[in-house]
Amino acid sequence: MTARRSEAPAALALSSLAMAGVMVLPGVPATANALAPWAPPPLNACGETGFDPLAREPNPDLPPPPPPPVDTTIHIQVPVPKFTPVPIPGPRQNNTRIDPAPLPADPCTNPCPDIRTDQSPRPENLPPETEPAEPGDDEDTTDEPPTEPAPEPAPPPSANSGSGGIPLPRLQIDQVPETIPILIPGGEPPEPQPQPAPAVPSLAPAPVAAPVAPVALDALELVNQVTGHGSSNRTDMRWSVDGTDLGLMWETEPGRIAVVFGDTFGKGWEPVGAGNGDQDWRSNAIAFSTERDLSKGLVLDTFAQDSRCHAAEILASRKVDNFEITTIPTSGFALHGRQYLTYMSVARWSRLEPGMWWTTLGGLAWSDDGGDTWTKSEWARWDNVFGLGRFQVMAMTPHDGYAYMFGTPNGRFGTIALARVPSDQVLNKSAYQYWIGNTWVPAFGPDELLATPVVSGTAGEVSVRYDASTRRWQMLYLDLDRGALVLRTAAEPQGTWTDPVTLVDTREYPTTYGGFVHPWSSGNDLYFTMSAWNSYNVYLMHAKLK
Known about the structure:
Elements: H1 12-19, E1 73-90, E2 170-187, E3 204-205, E4 217-225, H2 235-239, E5 246-253, E6 256-261, E7 285-289, E8 302-303, E9 305-307, E10 310-311, E11 326-335, E12 338-349, E13 357-367, E14 375-383, E15 393-399, E16 402-408, E17 417-422, E18 433-436, E19 439-442, E20 460-467, E21 472-479, E22 484-490, E23 501-505, E24 512-517, E25 525-532, E26 537-545
Parallel strand pairs: 1-2
Antiparallel strand pairs: 3-19, 4-26, 5-6, 6-7, 7-8, 9-10, 11-12, 12-13, 13-14, 15-16, 16-17, 17-18, 18-19, 20-21, 21-22, 22-23, 24-25, 25-26
């Protein structure tokens, strides 16, 4: 991390802090017996150095690092209002797209040498475990708090020092601008969307099914680094994707997988964590893959691009803190030739509580060109009224005539609620039903708040699928209490769900979050993407179940 990353909009450091909350929330700390043996950083086929998300022993050939300097300064942050005009309705989504040229036959050849030279971060310099940036580290001077000044060295012991020559603490007041959005007229109205005809679904009993036989983890392996410098896909040089996360997936058509990423940064990005607004920030991006042999890794063929060698942002965001700082996709699926994305509109990231953020709404978007361009639905959205919305971070999957929607409140501390909608009414909110007390109940107003949790405990970044090979539902999510990515299975979406089985322990992968199942997983072979905040990139994992 550079000493100063001050030109970033909206708490991007807080974005990375929140999306990686597992590494800083209370839990089981990494211990010596959880560390893997030291190994040199991995190399891709082109000899470029990649990232290693494992917690490893330090390099025995290097001297131990010096102890950190003692800082006795106590920082007191004082918010200062920063009034920011926000044009409404604002600009339309930029759907500029190009037909990209084929990649060079030699995978190590730079496809755009006139645009991008090798100025990527050097992962070999990344410490094995790094604490997240403090709030304000990556923020924009035009919209967000500036970088906090580095603490001054502690003064030498003096007559004013405490007993034993220990310097007394000093107080430092840090002014932190707090964005206050001011709505003003401006921009171009979106294309009007006809309101769907009101639907009146009936009450339908839905008792839970009997528990299924639980599975256990037999083995876990890291298959490949999907994104970033040193990845097998070389996303930095090919598509200006140096740092990104999530990697949720679905099959857009037979033989083709869409892979959608969250906040994405290009040239100039460097670890640790998310980047800033000077580092080619896009709130999201979409790639496509056709490689069926997942033992080779998640191989990306191309991205939707708005210019040569540049992945496009597919869902726009206003990038204004306390209004809409970013738009994060949370799941995707295909029905009747149309692609759908669920997403959350993030108003702000928490400054005080890692793993917590506040949303404005959870919504749906659709694409009729295979996923290159997208339109946000005006009607299929769940507003976060008083912060109580149960369907803000959503995971949807179609099965047997319905699309099932699993939802959590904003942040990582809510329970999982469930809804469903007929597969031909996905964009008609009045056609939804919430699962409440063993009954599918029509989605009328506050009934959302009564949705019965389908599993106990809290969850973050839920990924759900129906596995036809085992005729079982699979649910993967981040369990903060256990400090792990866990798997549950069930015969029906409403349960009964098995107890959680740990797939990835954060003592071994200490900055892990965001597990999303690959749709071509089958039987006892479960492939899923995993994000690591430390390197802020995506990996494909393979869990062998028994």
